[in-house]
């Protein structure tokens, strides 16, 4: 049995405005119909002899990750929460330490299949066959990476120069190569000896930790200290934040793979892409006869080679070529496909200007459901709130705002001061400023309500929580 470890960190700022800091690309439905990229990563493990995936994600994404794993049928999967980002070498170390102790403390070395949550793989059968070819190498103590057979002179990826043959489509790693210029990339492609570095791996947990101890003992010791003091909350594992913050930041490539003499590579031709930009998404998307990839309510005229995504309204294009047009309910991006790498510069400007469009969408997910901020003004805000069956918001109080709740469908159990009562469809209730209150859905269908907030300050940080079943007190 292999143990999938899915790394779901990162913010994906190059895919703004769809990807936001609190809802990054791994949780978006970009390439796989009804599945997010994380869910598609989990789905391609089906049919393999694999344990429940172990997920690693940022603390602020925990409920979004847990809900998507629940929807994928893996609600029992453990989720390690990183209190801060420290790149892939420490993240994998946390997973290896966890597996070593919980799966096989005194037995065989558990094999870790390390995957990124935001990669596209079109040919799942080829991917699974590649993993099977890597298993014997990993059992021999090799640290196996998966190299993608290149189909163009890509300058945005690192490369692997393959060495001596070890088995079917399997080679020793001669060397890792940084992102090349175009002439060098063409030479690599013509030689047939180079593969793209995918950032996917298969190795034993103990073998990885041994190599980390040799090459980056400072990372290993910091991770050991962090995971020696954990707190389990629901399906989450929280490591010691202070100890982990002291860990150096480094990628697994730099920390281990480029230094070890036990690196191997399995070549993989499975329709892989890291979807690192809007132009990369256009390349792998289905297109019409004019080279357009269109999603949502879109009308085109005299338009070619263009990516258009419309989330909330009609988008029309006339007489354009080679563009990216991305519409969400609070932002619009129009960019030339050759300049999409600069989208991150726009995100930085939004952040530096004190705006919020880089942080989250208008629709915000919570462990109890979701809310959509549908209107706001100087002293009011209107939200549409959906509470899942059996879910309950925290017992809380606001210093600066009052709230008026109107139930649209379902039934609400409301605690308002020392009173608790039911509010049903077409009924409403009022929560005064400073009143301790809570909202619960006791029914078996979603509770839908409209919340009208009014007051001098309407920020989400004006919440004093007294009780919370989700550990947010």
From TrEMBL:
Keywords: Alginate biosynthesis, Cobalt, GTP-binding, Isomerase, Multifunctional enzyme, Nucleotide-binding, Nucleotidyltransferase, Transferase. It comes from Marinobacter gudaonensis. Residues 354-468 form the Mannose-6-phosphate isomerase type II C-terminal domain. This is Alginate biosynthesis protein AlgA. It catalyses: alpha-D-mannose 1-phosphate + GTP + H(+) = GDP-alpha-D-mannose + diphosphate; D-mannose 6-phosphate = D-fructose 6-phosphate. GO terms for biological process: alginic acid biosynthetic process; GDP-mannose biosynthetic process. Residues 296-349 form the MannoseP isomerase/GMP-like beta-helix domain. Gene3D superfamilies: Jelly Rolls, Spore Coat Polysaccharide Biosynthesis Protein SpsA, Chain A. Its cofactor is Co(2+). Produces a precursor for alginate polymerization. The alginate layer provides a protective barrier against host immune defenses and antibiotics. Its EC number is 2.7.7.13, 5.3.1.8. Pfam families: ManC_GMP_beta-helix (PF22640), MannoseP_isomer (PF01050), NTP_transferase (PF00483). Monomer.
